[in-house]
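Objective 1b: paired records.
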Amino acid sequence: MPYPGIWMTESEQILYRVVPKAACSSIGQILYYTEHGTFFDGDIHDARHGIHKWALEHSQPLISRAVESPDTYKFSCVRNPYPVSYTHLTLPTSDLV
């Protein structure tokens, strides 16, 4: 089964389901930091080493195994939609285009 949008530490202890615009860059940097003691030098979305990603073919079997493992901590983050919805509701209709 495919698991697009999954990032995981190299130790396979923490698995994160990426949600765009919901702190994914910050969380990716934290995952990298927990393994290496330093932040990734650059955009974590461009990382090809130091973190497992479903988009990297060599990581897919490891992620598939971790998804099923009770020993891997799994999490995701979402944004609170209320502030964005409220802003859109209070703007004049002409500003929504």
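Objective 1b, second protein:
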Amino acid sequence: MKIMIGRRLMTMMNSHFNLIKQRVSITDACRMYGIKLNRTKKARCPFHSEKEGSFSVKNDMWHCFGCGAGGDVITLVQKLFNLTPYEALEKLNYDFH
């Protein structure tokens, strides 16, 4: 019984994560949270100090060539605000809807 409840919960959580990823683009999240992307979708990384932009966005994924961090919109919000995946999901849902 516990296994079935866990699988249902995981399925439901995955659908919420996928829905937010579809609704909130990484470029919109960057704009909302103060990461200034240039026309080639590069910026200074918010996670370490640097003089030139090594933070890059492509196909709704982000990556920093300076510190090696990267991921999707959920992991960006997690890392920016030191949140769990679920808290990042809630923040994105609140901020964009």
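The radius of gyration is 15 Å. The mean pLDDT is 89.
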